[in-house]
Amino acid sequence: MTAASSPASAPDRPAMVNAHFILRQITGARRQSALFVLCVALSMITLVSLGSFNRSVQRSLWRDARALHAADIIVRAHAQLPPPLETEIAALTRNRAITTARYYDFYTVIQKTTGEGSLLSDLKAVEPGYPFYGQVLLASGRPFHEVLTTGSLIAERSFLDRLGVRTGDRVRIGNATLTVKDVVVQEPDRPVNFFALGPRVFVPAADLPAIGLLGKGSRAEYVTLAKLTDQAKLAPVVEALRSAAGESRVRVETYRDADSRVKKFFDNLLFFLDLSGIFTLLLAGFGIQSTLFALLKEQEKTIAVMKAVGAKSRYIIGHFLAVTLLLGLTGTVAGLAASFALQRYLPRLFSGLIPAQVDYAVSGWAVAEGVAIGFIVVLLFTALPLYRLKEVKPRIILGKEEQEGFWTRSTWVIGGTGTLFFFAMVLLKIRDVTTGLYFVGAIVGLVFAAFVLASIILWGLKRLHPKNLALRQALKGLFRPRNASRPILVTLSAGFAVIFAITLVEQNLDASFIQSFPPGAPTVFFIDIQPAQKDDFAKTLGTKGEFFPIIRATINAINGEPVDMAKQRQSRGDNLSREFNLTYRDYLLPDERITAGKALFRNDWQVPQVSVLDTVLKMHQMKVGDTLTFRVQGIPIEARISSIRTRNSSGFTPYFYFVFPPSVLADAPQTLFCAARIAKKEIAAVQNRIVQRFPNISVIDLTETAELFGRIMGKLSTIVRFFTSFSLLAGILIVVSSVFATRYARTQEAVYFTILGARARFVMAVFAVENLLLGVSSGVIALAISQVASLAICRKSLDMEYHPYLAQSLLLVLATTVLVMVVGMAATIPILRQKPVVFLREHAEE
User: How many percent of the chain have pLDDT more than 70?
Assistant: First the structure.
């Protein structure tokens, strides 16, 4: 652009000049314009796609809420319902206010009647009437209750395949023998079953007495479903049932407020992905800013000419604001189009994790929200480059560039506004101030750590004076004006640190829970052993097993203050609202040590005592000397905390949150739990032998559990990496924008090298080494941050040992280096093709 196209005729034809000016700026900087559009699109993709996906699932869950719970009212318990509640249900049924159907859900081992073979299964014994809403679909297409009659069984396809049976075969459950009648295809209130330890099996509740596995102390879920005769009476009926339940741990919920397992899982997953989306938005914003700096850098002399002929800063800023808004609009449209395309891929990405009946559609609200946020992001991150146009002086025409430092008053004001917007975004997505503050603090800590390490590395590189000419020139290239080496290192290392940390945590989880068991660690758990069966069971087992008494109980109060159950259930992690397994012993397990307290129990205390695992402290604050009130089989027990324990190992080794002295719980109703180490090839035979002799005992094969856990972790890791990759893409775009911002300087260097006799190979080597230094530095910084973060996550959050995996870590650094080099050189090579004679002719006057 020349002075002729500057504002000389602005007063006469402002509209035409503006349009011509905007077109010239965009067509004259096609690469920067395309990069700007990509950054804007990137900032919107995750917002709109995740927003639409979230609303699709939530809409489907709300629409199918009754089917997801199979009833209007759901009453859940882990034992027989209290008599007052049973009386109230009976009265409501007699008055025809409700119709009820019950089911009982528990794990048990099912055996083949011919040959050897047994399988841990998730048994659901249902009464006629189940489900009130939705349908249990069978492979034969026949009605569920016509098939599920006394003496019959319906199971998932995986049950038949794993046990090696077919429809028509007979299997043994407890003391009864039932016939496999059909295959279940879909169950309305169990839409996602990847956390199940075994396949679903339906039996009639009428067969439970013959099966003989459900009794006092059984680990089963007792569920009563109720269908209202009059939907308008939902609130009073629920209130009557809750009043009758009293202070018991029985939960009375409606289809509107009951949290299904799929909803809880989905909420937690989307919570994390929203955080990832916000992080991507932040990095894309920096990409927008860096790209605009690059675009405006190439236009500095044009801007200087415009000012020299009388154009005001406001006029120039207004024109370039129009350029950015037009590019932002183009990026928004591109982002929406990409979001629509991504929406089609998300069901496949999330397959197996969400209900199959979800209807996917792009949400108009999510689109509007994304457009609004995208517009604000464009304004915020372009404000500083546009405002700094005021600092461009006409003297730049003569090659004299004297600009103010970067950290001016305007920088702080715009940066502060952007920080407030970022925090508002976090609150909008997370809707929790405390969690939002933690997240913002974590992001600030991540960026600050990356900034400090990048500054240290650049400080060290600047003081190097290598003898190799190519290396020396590459080091100088890192510090050329507008090269943005520090922002590149900070952005890339922050994005790669997240990827590295995910990989390292996954590797540690895989080692601790999936690949192998520590020496001596159990591979099989046996539960629901009756005390009278202990000796006979030990003989039948045929190998050494460690027995632990189990007493089911709840926590009602801490230091006399009742536990707020509603608040506890809102927790995203484990909480005090559930039932716990208590045990008693007077010794520490091999992997335990005391972190607070003189000993496991104190001899100078005459009151009941309890030792608490440090994991419980994450659910509620407590310390040695505090008093906990438990309820065991309806009897309150008040115990004083004598010690706090921690575990030195991780994996599937047994552990207990609460340990009592034998004198306190030895006489309480209890079952036994046994852990044994059995070779994987022998587990099936042992399971068959135990179940044949003791039908009430459930056998959990930890090797299969580990494989299941591994599949789940692999699926979740794929999802997380997919969305985190957008953050890396933002970092890569910043690398490209830095190359564009220093295009003139790079071209000038290449031309001077050529004039001085350097070969093309030397010039290429200089720029390759420069990108190599950026890649290695960003990889090393990311590795340092990720190692510290992964260590904290594994030790503090997951309570497991940590291994740094140096070989894999070095491979991650190598991959990072190669990626940065490829991207950097791809953007640099077109610049190197500039002919020296053409460049010198164009800049002869300089």
Answer: 85
* Secondary structure (3-state) at 509: helix
Helix (H) or strand (E) holding 528, with range, is strand 524-529
Q: Are strands 152-156 and 176-186 parallel, antiparallel or unpaired?
A: parallel
Distance from the Cα of residue 490 to its chain's centroid: 23
Length of the chain: 846
- 118 three-class SS: strand
Record the tokens describing residue 170, joined without a space: 């007979």
What is the spatial distance between Cα 70 and Cα 95, in angstroms, rounded to a whole number? Answer: 22
Taking only the tens place, the pLDDT of each residue in 566-600 is 787 777 667 888 889 999 999 998 888 999 998 99
Alpha-carbon distance of 220 to 79, in angstroms, equals 7
Beta pairing, strands 609-613 & 635-647: parallel
Burial pattern 216-249, b for ≥16 Cβ within 10 A else e, equals eebbbebbbbbbbeeeeeeeebbebbbebbeebb
Between helix 760-792 and helix 806-832 the angle, nearest 10°, is 150
What DSSP assignment string belongs to 655-669?
A: --SEEE-HHHHTTS-
Residue 529: count of CB within 10 angstroms of its CB: 26
96-129 per-position pLDDT tens digit: 999 999 999 998 999 998 878 888 899 999 999 9
**Prediction pTM value:** 0.66
Looking at residue 470, its amino acid is A
In whole numbers, what is the pLDDT of the chain averaged over residues? 81
**What value, to the nearest 5°, has the Cα angle with vertex 437 and ends 436 and 440?**
85
Helix/strand number for the chain, H first, E second: 25, 21
Q: Which two tokens stand for residue 416?
A: 């502060």
Phi, psi of 337, rounded to the nearest 5 degrees = -65, -40
Pairwise CA distance, residues 747 & 653, whole Å = 63
Helices (H), 108-247: 144-147, 157-163, 208-211, 234-245
Tell me whether strands 137-138 and 545-558 are parallel, antiparallel or unpaired. unpaired
Tell me the C-alpha distance between 663 and 19, whole Å: 88
* Closest-CA residue to 287 (of 135, 107, 490): 490
Task: Please report, rounded to a whole number, the percentage of residues in the chain having pLDDT higher than 90.
Answer: 26
Rounded Cα distance, 496 and 498, in Å? 5
Helix axes 680-693, 534-541, angle to 10 degrees: 140
pLDDT tens sequence across 349-360: 877 666 666 666
| The three-state (H, E, C) secondary structure of 776-828, written as one string | HHHHHHHHHHHHHHHHHHHHHHCCCCCCCCHHHHHHHHHHHHHHHHHHHHHHH
- Joined together, the tokens standing for residue 181 give 């009648």
At 547-557, the pLDDT tens digits run 999 998 989 99
Query: Amino acid identity, residue 300?
Result: E
Residue 284: the pLDDT is 80
Q: In sequence order, what E strands does 323-424 have?
A: none
CB 582 within 8 A of CB 665: yes
Give the 3-state secondary structure of residue 676.
strand
